[in-house]
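Task: fold both queries, return tokens.
Query 1:
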Amino acid sequence: MTPLLNITEKQTVDSFSITIAPLSLSEIYTLADDPSNGAVVVMSGTVRNQTDGKPVVALEYQAYEPMALKVFSSIAAQIRASWSDVTRVVIHHRIGRLTIGEVSVLVAIGCPHRSEAFAACQYAIDTLKHNAPIWKKEHWDDGSSTWVSIGACEQSE
């Protein structure tokens, strides 16, 4: 009889979402939590009431969902290449029209140590904003609107 090998593989339980529904801070935290974590760092992006002093009344987000989710997964892989102790990567982004104070994006990183969790969270949001095919339109107080330039769309060949 051949003995069975007991091989333990580190299982990752990440969560990525593009949704029209409101985002839940408690849900994101729960998804990032793990018994081995010493830290869960959450970044919440919210709709503010102005840009460069000009009054904003709403933002509108659109995304190419299949590609955006692949970018989120790639960000998680890049995080694990740099911070191997990260236990969970959670990236959820809203689409549709959002008003002042609503949460547009939540990024949460679970990790045994706070310094790595902070660094990985900052990397995730910065990389998402530059690479994910998510577009933002600002709706101004005067009734006009403007699409905001997106990093991934500005890359030249």
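Query 1 returned. Query 2:
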Amino acid sequence: MDKIPKIDRQREHQANERTFLAWLRTSIALIGFGFAIARFGIFLQQLNIAITQREAPVNPLSNSENLGLALVIFGILAVALAAWRYNQVFWQIERADYKPNRLMVWIMTGVVIILGLFSIPLLLRRDKNVPFRSPVPIQPQSRNLQRLTSNANVNKGTITTLYKQIFLFLK
């Protein structure tokens, strides 16, 4: 145990801790991205329903909820692996028999590549049942017009109604 000078052992333990914290930040980012992707997919489904007034079919395998869930699960597993590796390296430093192991790096790389490949169909998918809308918003330009149209009966397909539906959904 005293084969390594005390100051060198402290540096090695601090480097081990920094490495663990880097893995921890990566795991938190994976969990955060997974959560955001899953929730944003649900938001897009609700927005599509509000615009088209009908529910679009969802692919049971390649959808954003599954990709988000996979990222969250992988982030949790990465934290567990990082803690296990931190503990393993801690005792190797104490025994002065540290052996580098690149297996965890290759596992993380492989899983991130696989999850990235699974996200490609989500990026390329286009909904064919969403009608084309004019990019110009249909809104009154003056306050007087806005007051007049706010009292009028607004059709279900207008942008104003869409904004109200989105607001109620987010509320």
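Both queries returned. Flag for query 2: Residues 81 and 158 are 51 Å apart (CA to CA).
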